[in-house]
Specification:
Radius of gyration: 18 Å
Mean pLDDT: 96
Low-confidence stretches: none
Shape: globular
Strand content: under 5%
Order of helices and strands: HHHHHHHHHHH
Largest sheet: none
Amino acid sequence: MSTPPLSPDGLEAALRAIGAERYHNLHPFHRALHDGRLTRGQVQAWALNRYYYQCRIPAKDATLLARLPTAELRREWRRRLVDHDGDAPDTGGVARWLKLTGGLGLDRAYVESLHGLLPATRFAVDAYVHFVRDRSILEAIASSLTELFSPTIIGERVSGMLRHYDFVTPDTLAYFQPRLTQAPRDSDFALAYVRDHARTAEQQQAVMDALRFKCDVLWSMLDALDYAYVAPGRIPPGAFRPDPA
């Protein structure tokens, strides 16, 4: 006997339960970052590797934008490109992330070169870009629903880092303030789209799997950071090596 589809409210509840179980605010490296238990070098490693995720988000969104069938949908998704790439040089989220890495003492040219990335960071982020490029529009949009949970993690991140690290300033963390309004706006649209378009049990399962996949991408990035820079501290060849304390 086939499984009946969930109601839209039931589907939303299932998606939120996935975030409650799998979102990376639960990861030990995240907890250490926010609780002030990392060294400056470990925070640098996090910011450097996270830059690759930030700079590839516009490319991910562009692959989806090219496939959206209506002008209304394209206008909605195009805002995400502007949010991250800006509408002029040195504007947008990617530029603000470079301000963060610079505030932590990392050379901009080195960050942009991507030479110091952990291999697992590159593999995880590329897998996400390819997922959005290759899967259905519904699955691609559903994979963005981690933004449902991001305002909480942003609040923790900003307050925790300012409280615990004397090398972090409000100016350094300027990336995060706009995301407090952008992420809810974007997740409201994506959630409404998924509620409306995931009508069969099969579609709903694909949507939930897409969100699990995205949570796994973010979790695996922190796994790699934890393994390389916390314990056992095995930094792979060619990856960023913090200055000795």
